């Protein structure tokens, strides 16, 4: 029997196995940031254990960072202390750190791929649930807890039980205006938030093969939202072309040798999965969420379903929505385009393409937050910043921003925010804030209209997207 992509990468990293039990898995790259690393550094310091392989760790400041005036001292004391501690810990242990303001600084799951740190066939971990983003490269990447961060610091390994395998296949041609974000929101809406529990998911089929790397990262990023340990897409020419020439990518003959290996990674035709799902691309439309988990999603033209369970009713009560109603024309005062899900250059190109020649609605506060300094530079160099500013939008500086209420960019209580981030839990974007997840295109259209609009009705706009 053949092997899956996941099996090939996992098996190549097993250091040792316990009979009928967990395995010791070697970790190629360890990504860290200021929020989940201090406790792990302290644990090693208290136990007089040194960092085993500091050269395989890459650090960045992202969660607590302000997205304005980054050249000034950080005002929030907790954030300032965490950033200072990260800097001191990395310096003391010889770890590469891209601090606030550095040309390579950015959200951990944006800056690592764009620097060529992320490569096919690797195992990668980070104290952050959306580490699954890196699976877009054919990488086993997953989030870990603080105690596991300490384990990787000390040994460059983890003791793990191998997850089961799941494959989601989507074939066909996507409709106009349907973006990768819509694809994954559609999948989660159909399968639910627990469908991937205990599994590592591979995405296969025409739709993913035809996606850019940015799109694939968006899909893999949200694998965790259906309960999966992580998501993967087989590497191909799109992957190799994306990596080639990047700062930390292999060069010359070394790159060619790597590509030869990477070409052996895709799932064998006779490989078996523990579970499989198949969808038709023609059934997918622009999506929005109406509730308080990412599985509570509908096509933008649909109506909120009617269910009787208590948690469903509680969710609608929090959102101040009613079963059976449409969200079209719902007034929206906040729009956020950013996060490790949708803050890459492709996302801002889509938004700028729609916004060009239009004006932001007066009632909307729109935060456009690039995922890294490099994305920020691209936005400026490509003239997108001018497009945004001419339309009344303001481009902010890189960071996790309004994805989570861990920095200054919080949505006020009771307000709706159409967000390109990954989670719509109660209070995720601020105490009492109400989050509606959507693609950058739907978010841009909302910011212009000041309300949710059926983007599928404006075909003339979509044809150039």
List the helices and strands and how they pair.
Layout: H1 5-11, E1 14-17, E2 23-26, E3 29-32, H2 38-46, E4 57-60, H3 77-93, E5 96-98, H4 108-114, E6 123-126, E7 140-143, H5 146-155, E8 157-160, E9 164-171, H6 180-191, E10 199-204, H7 206-209, H8 213-221, E11 230-232, H9 237-243, H10 253-262, E12 275-280, E13 287-289, E14 297-299, H11 310-319, E15 334-337, H12 345-355, E16 365-368, H13 373-381, H14 384-390, E17 394-395, E18 416-419, E19 434-437, H15 440-449, H16 459-462
Parallel strand pairs: 3-4, 3-6, 4-5, 6-7, 9-10, 9-12, 10-11, 15-16, 15-18, 16-17, 18-19
Antiparallel strand pairs: 1-2, 2-8, 13-14
What does this structure look like?
- The protein has 465 residues and is of the alpha/beta class.
- Helices cover 31% and strands 17% of the residues.
- It has 16 helices and 19 strands.
- It has helices spanning 5-11, 38-46, 77-93, 108-114, 146-155, 180-191, 206-209, 213-221, 237-243, 253-262, 310-319, 345-355, 373-381, 384-390, 440-449, 459-462, and strands at 14-17, 23-26, 29-32, 57-60, 96-98, 123-126, 140-143, 157-160, 164-171, 199-204, 230-232, 275-280, 287-289, 297-299, 334-337, 365-368, 394-395, 416-419, 434-437.
- Strands 5-4-3-6-7 form a 5-stranded parallel beta sheet. Strands 17-16-15-18-19 form a 5-stranded parallel beta sheet, covered by helices on one side.
- Residues 461-465 have low confidence and may be disordered.
